[in-house]
Each structure stands twice: as C-alpha cells, then as structure tokens.
Amino acid sequence: MIVYEKKYDVIVVGAGHAGCEAALAAARIGVSTLLLTINLDAIALMSCNPAIGGLAKGHLVKEIDALGGEMGRNIDATGIQFRVLNTRKGPAVRASRAQADKQQYRLRMKTVLEQQDNLDLKQVEVTALHLDGGAVVGVDTRGGVRFLGKTVILTTGTFMRGLIHIGLVHYPGGRAGDLPSVGLSERLVDYGFDVGRLKTGTPARLDGRTIDFNKLEPQYGDERPVPFSFSTEKIEQPQVPCHIAYTNEKSHEIIRSGLDRSPLYAGIIEGIGPRYCPSIEDKVVRFPDKERHQTFIEPEGRDTVEVYPSGMSTSLPIDIQWAFYRSIEGLERVEIMRPAYAIEYDYVNPIQLHASLETKLVPNLYHAGQINGTSGYEEAAAQGLMAGINAALRVQGKDPLVLGRHEAYIGVMIDDLVTLGTKEPYRMFTSRAEYRLLLREDNADLRLREKGHEVGLVPEETYKGFLVKKECIENELVRLSKERLTPSAAGEELLAEWDLVGMQNAISYEHLLRRPDFTCEDLSRIYPEIMELPEAVREQLEIQIKYQGYINRQLEQVERAVKLEHAKIPADMDYLSIPGLSTEVREKLDRFRPDTLGQASRIPGITPAGITILSIALKARG
Ligand code: FAD
Q1: Does the model's ipTM exceed the 0.90 cut?
Q2: Ligand 1 centre and the CA of 156: distance in Å?
Q3: pTM higher than 0.90, yes or no?
Q4: Residues lining ligand 1, judged by CB closer than 6 Å?
Q5: 413-458 confidence digits (pLDDT tens)
Q6: N or C: more exposed end of the chain, with fewer CB within 10 A?
C-alpha cells in the first residue's frame, strides 16, 4: 500500500446523504476531513424518490438544519414543489415535504462540499480499515493507496455486497448504474461485527412524454411554499405539479401473473425489506380486496422528462413491468427509461454502536446511515451529521454530543437503533417519539440551535438572529400574560363576537389566545402591534400558549426519564454476576451492554424491577 502524504483528522467513507452531512459537519467544526467515495458524480444522489421530508422525516430535516447541517438549505435551493402535510392536525404531526430537482440537488451539494474549507474529496473505493492496537487509524483502497486518519466514519448505504434484482435476473451493484462495494463488509465480519442482509426496492423511471397527463389528476404544491431551513427567507423558484394515477384490476392481474418470476416470492431474495414501504406486488398480494392503488407521478426535475411513480416499486421481470405500468389509465403508451429493481445489501447491527455512533468494537470508528439498518435520506443525513460532529469532537478531545429522546427525533432514532438494534429497515415515524408535543418541526431551532452553536456548527451571525427570535418570544409571552382585556375597553360588539358577553373581570391576552380557534390575527383587533412580530414568532406564541397544559405534562415525564439517562453504566459491568436478576435478564443486558440505565430500561423484557436491581448493583460498585 502506498501511504498518502497528508494525514486527516476525520475520514468519511461514502458521499450519500449521511456522508455529505458527516464530512461537512467535521470540516465546519474545523478538523481536517477527507471524503472518499466510489463515484464523485453521484454525490448526494437520490437513489429512490426525488423528494425530501414527509411525516417525521420533515422533523429530521428541520433538526439537521437547526444543528447546522446542509440538507434543509439544499432542498430549499433545489426543490420544485413544497407542501406542508397535516395542516389540519395538531402542530406535533405537521410535516414539510418537497419534491426535488434530483440533479440540481446533487450538483448543489457537490458544490457546497467543494467550497468547504478543511475538506478534500477523492474518488476511490475503500476495501478495508487499517487498525493499530485494535483502533482504526486509516483505510485501504482498491487503488492501493492507504489514507491515514484519527477517526473513520463508514456511510456505505446500499453498496456493501449490493445485489440488484430484476425478476430472476440479478447482478452486483451499489444501486442502478453504480458499482457495489466489495470486500469491506467481509473485513467488518473479521473484526467481529454482526453483518446482516436487508433489501429495498424502487419503481421504474418513466418517460413523461409518453404519459397522457390530461387523464390524470394534478396535485399542486402550497400556494406559499414554506422553506425547510430556518435560514431560508423565501422559496423563489416556481413550482411544478405532480399527478395522481391509479392501478386497476387489470394491473393486479398482470402483477399476479408474474409472481412466479418475482425474486421475492421465488425465495431468491434473503434480505428483509421495509414493511411500511411495500412493493406493488406485496400490496396486491397482501390486500387482495383492494380495487386500486394510488400513485403520485412525481417529476424528477425541471430539465428532464423522467418521472417517478411513487409507491410502485417492484422487482418483477421487465416484461411484467412494461405490461403493468401500461395498464394504468393515462400510462397506456408509457415507455420505461429505467427499470424498477430491488437491491439486497449488507448492514451492521447498530446495537454494536454507542449513542455517539462510535462502534463498541473498534475505537474511533463510526457508522452512519443505511449501514446502520435505516432507510431514507433524512434518517441517513441525521446520523451522518451526528457522526461527523462526534468524530470531530473526539479529535478535539471533547465529550460527544448525544441528543436525548426528549430533545430530538434524531435522539429517538439513534437511541432506538443502539438500544434495540434492527432486523428490518428502520424509518422514522412520529409514533416512535414519546414526547411528540415537545419535538415539533416548528420549534426545532429552539430545541437545537444552541447545541449546534456550542459544537461550532452554527455560524455566529445565524446564532445571533436566533437569539433575537428567542428573546422576542420570551418577552412576548410575558407581555401576553400581563396585558388584559377589560369589559369596558372591549365594547359590546367585540364582546358579543368573541362570546364574552357578561364578562365580569378582565382577562389576559394569553387567556384569549388559549381558545382553540383564536389567532394572533384575532388578537390584533385589540393589540395591533402583534402583527408586526415575525410570523415565526407569532406561530410560537399560538402553539406554546394553546398547548401549554400538554407541554407541561410532557416536561414532567421528561424530568423523571432524564434521571435514568444520566445514570451511566461502566463499559466493563459484569451483568452475569448481579444477584437477584433472572438469567434471561442478565444475558440480555450482557448482550445489549447499555451505556445508561435509561437505555437498559428500553430493552424489551427488562422490567422496572430489573432496573431497580441494576441501579442498586451500580451504587454498590460506587
Ligand atoms: P447512500 O445514499 O446509499 O450512499 C452511500 C455512499 O457510499 C455512495 O456515495 C457510495 O458511492 C459510497 N460508498 C459505498 N461503499 C463505499 C466504499 N467501499 N468506498 C467508498 N465509497 C463507498 N429510502 C426510503 O426512504 N424509501 C425507499 O423506498 C427507498 N428505496 C430505495 C430503493 C433503492 C433501490 C435504493 C438503492 C435505495 C432506497 N432507499 C429508500 C434508501 C435511500 O436511498 C437511502 O436510505 C439513503 O440514500 C441512504 O443514505 P446513505 O448516505 O446511508 O447511503
């Protein structure tokens, strides 16, 4: 091996969504960083749907942005249709989603990486880790070059031993058009990692020129697109519509006729696929009574005719794909530009990670993204950001940044992964977060900006702007609790309109805002200055006041839970000799090796009684 002359603090392997955030975070914190990837032209490529955000995923993007990551700004600059979902539901489940111009998204991210100080980019395939005394000190590459680094972050996505399936045809690939990563996962097995197999799939990309859009129902974005990033003022670019189409009984018949040549049903695919994101053949088999399945025909960009039929992923043979896509109304003449396929790949059980995303087996080695068994760009980017931050903090000799389950969806996801592991592709859902009302999209900056600034990721100017907003909210909350509406000042007309006839005592503005449908705009009738506050501040006032009771209740629960999180368990804890625990519980704790009592309490089968015994054993150890 030829050893490369320059030595790095952080080496990131892979430039997908995890790798880009990891590399930018480390470099922005100020340590020398190297990003290695198989193909420099496929940086931040969207392997599947050309969209960012959605339920719970939008929360992750906002959190990434609040901490100083890039995903939010990248989609704001390259999005072609923005929508806020669940606007009629409570603020906890409102979520942002945007269609992306896929090529623009990739190109902008590459430019951002290239313009970043402290960051070098190189196109190579990493085939092994280089260890010294059991800790990682660099990586070896297929070209025969060894790169040395104090820390290494693996973000290999779907590439390790990637195997693409189209019907009964299969061939190695990291994703369509990309080579797989060969050798690296075998080395990880040698180091003791528990490497498993997962599977995911993607629909065909269709030629939009051969679709009769007049037969489809258009779906437009929001009239006033709302940006993802707290730093983006306005989405300037025009938006484009998606279209809705449906399968029918004929499509389902065609699909059923191809099942004997489906690699999934023929038992050729061994990897476990995402339950919540089934292929079209899965939907047809599992829900035989359903007469039709909906698909959104999503444009892949402004300058391309390629479109993405969402929810129509399949690994059926190409002749079945031709027939079933053409059985859909409006798609009778459709041409497939890229076939649908499934991919199997290696992942590493995330139970072998600390909450900092450093591996328990190899010091200074971090794993982030799909390699940890997750699925989705946002999940990957969030982990990449945390791994990048923590690798940089390690180099600086500082403690890692670990977000709690009450602080961020990112904290929930990482805790789920490292505490419970995963046997199937993990994706984020709002239902995974027990403190949903605290973890809203709208308050991600209030939750996390401070932390992003502390680690050195949020620039001073941005931080100052944030402090102004925070102070403004705090001052205004005090003002609203003090200012009062008196019966005489209100006048009879307004009292009647606001259902306050007969009101005896003055009531605070806060009290008025607590009413379900009462908005700042309503309040402006008696307090016009409120409309001069920024919209984001008014939004906070309404949400924080209306949901105060629920929020306070969740905060009390958090207080109790945090005590368990702070109780650290030493890495060499001898679980097997703790008296009073059942053999099953001892073995479970020994296998999971939790870092804190909080983590231990979330392991399935560990009872509160077990936690009490464990905490007594911890105290006895001193
Ligand atoms: P990736 O985006 O896969 O990036 C991995 C990067 O690592 C690439 O740049 C690659 O070149 C590089 N790399 C790999 N090995 C090496 C090596 N040895 N040396 C150097 N560089 C290396 N997500 C969903 O949410 N829903 C879906 O329905 C869905 N379907 C999918 C279908 C398919 C066919 C594929 C391929 C992916 C799908 N995904 C889906 C997953 C989504 O693409 C990933 O979750 C996301 O891209 C993961 O990001 P990542 O950064 O971990 O990895």
Answers
A1: yes
A2: 7
A3: yes
A4: 13-19, 36-39, 42, 47-48, 125-126, 155-159, 174-175, 181, 184, 200-202, 277, 343, 369-370, 375-377, 380, 427
A5: 999 999 999 999 999 999 999 999 999 999 999 999 999 999 999 9
A6: C
